[in-house]
Structures are given as C-alpha cells and as structure tokens.
Amino acid sequence: MHLAQLNIAHMRAPKDSPELADFIALLEPINKIADNAPGFVWRLKGGDAPTDTVVHEYGDHLLINFSVWESREALWNFTYRSEHLPVLRRRREWFHHIAEPYSVMWWIPEGTIPGLDEGMSRLARLRERGPSPEAFTFRDFHEAPAPSLG
Amino acid sequence: MQAVAALQDPVRRALYEFVAAQGRAVGRNEAAEAAGVQRTLAAFHLDKLVEAGLLESGFKRLGERTGPGSGRPAKVYTRARTEHVVSVPARDYRTLALVLAEAVEALGGEERAEQAARAAGRKAAAGGPPALEEALRERGYEPYHDDEGGLRLRNCPFHVVAEESPLLACSVNLALCQGLLEGLGERGVTARLAPRPGECCVAFSKNNES
C-alpha cells in the first residue's frame, strides 16, 4: 500500500502578491527536494512551470498539496527532516493559522492515483469525525491494512 | 533503573559512550580498542548493555571484501533509540510537555514559545560552561564536527515531543540554541534548521567573515 497525503493552507494574500513572493520563489527548490526524496511516488502538479500550484475549485485563497508516498517514514523525512522544515517554520508569514485539521492521510493501493475530490472529502471526514483508518494524521496514525488473501 | 545501573561500571560506560558517539554500527574490536580493554571483556560488557536495552546489536560485514572468502559477518552495536528516564521521586514531565505542545499548536502560539525558548537558552548559557561545544554536550546534544566544518548534533534532547509535534519542537529547539549562542556571546556562529533523518534538527556554522 502507498500513503496518500493532502494538506491545505489558507493564503494571507493572493498568489501573485508581494506578500507571497518569498513562498512562490521557494516552490521550485522545495518541489525538487520532494521529487527526489526517497519514497516519493507522485504529486499533483498545477502545470509545467515550477511555480504552478494545484488548480482547484475550493476557493482562490486555498493552496493545496496532494502527494503519494511509499511509507509514513518517507513522508515524515521529507516533511520534517529535510530543507522543507525551515520553509514550514515560516508558514505564518504566508498562511493563516487554521484551528481545525489541515492535513489528512490514507492508504491507497500501489499504482493508483486518488482524485483531488476524494482527498478533500477525506479531510472533511477527519474534521467531522476525527481520525480513523480512512482519514488520519501523523499524530493519530493508522498502519496500512494487512493484505487480503486471493 | 536497571538501564542506568548498567552504566555504573566504568568500562561499560566508556564502551557505551564510544558506541553512542560514533553514530554508526561499531564492531567489538574497535570498541575494545577505544575503551582500552581486551576484546573478550569488551564483548561481555557490550552484550550486557544490549541486555539492559541501552545498545542494539546486529550482524554486518566489516571488511572491504564481499562475497565468498570475506568471512562471516561480525557482531556490531548501535545505540538503542529507546530512551530511559529515571526520576526519584517519580515525575512525568513528558506528558505535561506533550499536552502543552498540543495546546500551543492549537492556539497558534509558536512564536511566543520560541521567544520563551530563546530566553531559556540565554539563561542556560549563564549557568553553564563558557564554550559552545561543552555547553551543548552538557545539555545532551552530543555535538560532532561534520565534513563541511560545521557543528552538528547527534542527539535530539526533545525526541519524544519532536515525534508528536515536530515543527514546534524543532522551532523551540532552534530558538533555544540561538539563545544559548547569545548568552555565550558567540557572535561568529549561526544556528540554523538543517534537519536530517535520525539527528537533531539544528546545525551550527561559522559566519562568513567579510
């Protein structure tokens, strides 16, 4: 099984504003680190340009990251044990504090690519009902289900 | 308690400290040499440390040669990831730290936490040894020099909180280290976040003199 992860961020200003300029400039190096990270499988891209962000219908102020990883460790090491961490630390410069869960994970069969709508509904499920094997977080992690026979 | 008692023997303690400081798997010969004891004695104590849960053992080919004729794998030791906390009488700062970390995150109070950590770092500098490396060692960071002339930290003293609230723990840790530098008057050195798997997230580098 592979681990799918979706997270959203609420931008303080439009994407092309000076307030967000530092963040936009960091997209290319950080995406490069993700793409080359051990255990990285896939991420949703907004376009071919390095600064293209995920295109969606959930509101212009929302920035969405959506990716697939081989394991919890792979995603953890990219998120918190790489040059991604210093960027994450600056998040308040560009994004509002969100008081409810803004990140969700779930297991998917290898070789499949989940849809963005599915990710958003998993996040909604996490917010409504708390962590479960269908929608969980690093803090309330659920291991991959045992492979079924046949 | 048993784990701590296992470190009372000076040979055992020397072996433990040597293995912990290497940050990689260590063979019996190498450990014996470092501790200045016979190989069989070193092996005895190393296995006692495994029994006490302070070290982990495994098997690995230590030589350059591989394939047939390279000999069977040697027994090697690494420091166990599990931590041992002894407090008499019983205290539980861990639960309190985890609860407070979650509350700080929920309130978005990271910046305030970093300020407090910076102040704590300055205070710690005032009461500790005057040299940075010594001060870090005293606080459990296990500093070592990397190949690029920087100073890195092998141990994360806040490991339990860093597993649950990594962003907060690492930010607070960085602020603490920055406070420590300020308190020591180390103007030529900068602390920054440079995380790697299995190590502390903070690294120190000398400022470029212009």
Total domain modules of chain A = 1
N-end to C-end Cα span of chain A: 16 Å
Give me the count of strands of chain A. Answer: 4
Percent range of helical residues of chain B: 40-55%
Which percent band covers the strand fraction of chain A? 15-25%
CATH-scheme architecture of chain A = 2-Layer Sandwich
Instruction: Give the largest interface.
Output: A-B, 14 and 18 residues
Organism (chain A): Thermocatellispora tengchongensis
Protein name (chain A): DUF3291 domain-containing protein
Notable traits:
heterodimer, A: 150 residues, alpha+beta, globular, B: alpha+beta, Arc Repressor Mutant, subunit A, three-stranded antiparallel β-sheet, 9 helices, DUF3291 (chain A), DUF3291 domain-containing protein (chain A), Dimeric_a/b-barrel (chain A)
What can you see in these coordinates?
The complex is a heterodimer of chains A (150) and B (210). Chain A is α+β, with helices and mostly antiparallel strands. Chain A has one domain: Alpha-Beta Plaits. Chain A contains 5 helices and 4 strands. Chain A starts with a strand and ends in a 21-residue tail after the last helix. In chain B, the strands form 2 sheets. Chain B has a 4-stranded antiparallel β-sheet. In chain B, strands 1-3-2 form a 3-stranded antiparallel β-sheet. Chain B has 2 domains: 78 residues, Orthogonal Bundle (Arc Repressor Mutant, subunit A); 114 residues, no CATH class. Chain B is globular and about 60 Å long. At the A-B interface, helix 2 and helix 3 of A face helix 9 of B.
